[in-house]
Amino acid sequence: METNKFTTDLKSVEEQAKALVLMKILVLGSREIEQGKFRDVDEVFAGLEKTGR
Fold first, then answer.
1. pLDDT tens, residue by residue, 32-51
2. I need a labelling partner for 49 at 20 to 30 A (CA). Which of 5, 9, 17, 34 fits?
3. Which of 7, 10, 30, 8 is nearest to 18 (CA)?
């Protein structure tokens, strides 16, 4: 029984760590948008078409 509890707790910790990383990414992305550090999607696709990607 102790092994199952430990495994469950470990999975929970791993899921929380992944969630925290995703939240950090969202915060950084929001911050960059607020600072104007982004390109319009049409601009991005036009650049990709130019390079043939």
1. 999 999 999 999 999 999 98
2. 34
3. 10
